[in-house]
Amino acid sequence: MSEAPVVTRFAPSPTGYLHIGGARTALFNWLYARGRGGKFLLRIEDTDRARSTPEATAAILKGLTWLGLDWDGDAISQFERAGRHAEVAQAMLAAGHAYKCFATQDEIAAFREAAKAAGTSTLYRSPWRDAAPDSHPDAPHVVRLKVPRDGETVIHDQVQGDVTWRNDQLDDMVLLRSDGTPTYMLAVVVDDHDMGVTHVIRGDDHLANAARQMQIYHAMGWAVPVWAHIPLIHGPDGKKLSKRHGALGVEEYQAMGYPAAAMRNYLARLGWSHGDDEFFTDEQAKEWFGFDGIGKSPARFDFKKLDNLSGQHFAVAEDAALLHELEQFLEATDAAPLTPAQKDRLARAMPHLKSGTRNFPQLIEKAHFVLSERPFIPDEKAAKLLDNVSRGILAELTPHLQNASWTRDALEEAVAKVAEAHDLKLGKLAQPLRAALAGRTVSPSVFDMMIVIGRDETLARIADTKP
């Protein structure tokens, strides 16, 4: 008999951007499902109507799309399923697994204050738990889950191990509020069950919720999913990741120019490992990812490691894919789109732009020589390299380039010959030549640039430097 297919889910609340921690949770769920031929589902937990916004939902979908985390089917709205949630609560009520509680907020608050003053447990025990229905007043009430008072609840967690709660330490949590709306705790379980979720992979801040949610699974006689509660992400200082550590939203990393493949690779390594492997592809990650590689301690976000991985991904990326993602970066940062001519020149230059590049702003800076048009106005650093002596040597270089066959070896030989005549090292002549060709001090090799832009353009740019 074959095993049931794996179904995971990501269930963000649309109250803001897609947090980097949420993105990693989504990635872990995506990797686990995709690596096993399963489904990865998306649920928007929008029951908090005061804080949920369509803009936040759009930002979450946009962030997931940029990261390349495709989900199966349509995103599900938790709010739209409120009727189904209430239906399950009523079923538990009818079966005796839940009860109507008529205690007011003032009564509950008074109980807790008295318990605190007496130094006893503030865990509220409703007097309505075993009250006869004929004693119920005609008054507003909530519906509470009837949690067993004895025994234990054990979460068999794939990351944390077995975690045990005494049932007498769990409260009879509210399932339906007095206005008939379902609580988050009920909605999560009903949705996960109805969506066929087999594995719940989420932050370990939800571990206590699992103990309470398990009671609903048991009350309904539903299969309990596999739990995997992953440690949170901390900053370099070991404290919970916050704005003081830098960017928190996924869209900020796109705006900084990191390629999506590098972000997936880096986020996968935050709290999960596969031997000593740091750099890997999506296919490798899908094949390797499993709970046994997830650590119990919080991961620490490290921009240096992200930069390093990003550079490795630039180096191996396909030219066409980089060009496509560069266009997405320009759109995301509200920059001017590329013209057809710029795209054509960039496509020719891309093999020479990737090495040593760690983000798209760096790539754009290096690509200035093909993105701009003559005459090139050198920036401050480049202008210092184009003094009268350097301009004279470049003028002397011109006939050598006019007669050279346009290959890298021939160009290198021509420049080396002129440099030698002036008792200069090749690099010393390459500096003003770079300033003439790119107007910048950062660019690909001068010989690569000459090959890309061609003889006529090279000579024209050198001629533009004449005093």
TrEMBL record:
Keywords: Aminoacyl-tRNA synthetase, ATP-binding, Cytoplasm, Ligase, Nucleotide-binding, Protein biosynthesis
Binding-site residues for ATP, renumbered to this chain: K243
Molecular-function annotations in GO: ATP binding; glutamate-tRNA ligase activity; tRNA binding; zinc ion binding
Reactions catalysed according to its record: tRNA(Glu) + L-glutamate + ATP = L-glutamyl-tRNA(Glu) + AMP + diphosphate
Motif ('KMSKS' region): 240-244
GO biological process terms, semicolon-separated: glutamyl-tRNA aminoacylation
Aminoacyl-tRNA synthetase class I anticodon-binding domain ranges (all copies): 325-464
InterPro entries given in the database record: aa-tRNA-synth_I_cd-bd (IPR045462), aa-tRNA-synth_I_codon-bd_sub2 (IPR020751), aa-tRNA-synth_I_CS (IPR001412), aa_tRNA-synth_I_cd-bd_sf (IPR008925), Glu-tRNA-ligase_bac/mito (IPR004527), Glu/Gln-tRNA-synth (IPR000924), Glu/Gln-tRNA-synth_Ib_cat-dom (IPR020058), GluQ/Sye (IPR049940)
PROSITE patterns to which the protein is assigned, alphabetical: AA_TRNA_LIGASE_I
Quaternary structure and partners: Monomer.
Enzyme Commission numbers on file: 6.1.1.17
Protein name from the UniProt record: Glutamate--tRNA ligase
Ranges where the Glutamyl/glutaminyl-tRNA synthetase class Ib catalytic domain occurs: 6-307
Entry-linked Pfam families: Anticodon_2, tRNA-synt_1c
Compartment(s): Cytoplasm
HAMAP family the record matches: Glu_tRNA_synth_type1
Function: Catalyzes the attachment of glutamate to tRNA(Glu) in a two-step reaction: glutamate is first activated by ATP to form Glu-AMP and then transferred to the acceptor end of tRNA(Glu).
Family per similarity comment: Belongs to the class-I aminoacyl-tRNA synthetase family. Glutamate--tRNA ligase type 1 subfamily.
Keyword Nucleotide-binding listed: yes
Enzyme class: ligase
A GO CC annotation given for this chain: cytosol
Sequence motif 'HIGH' region, residues: 12-22
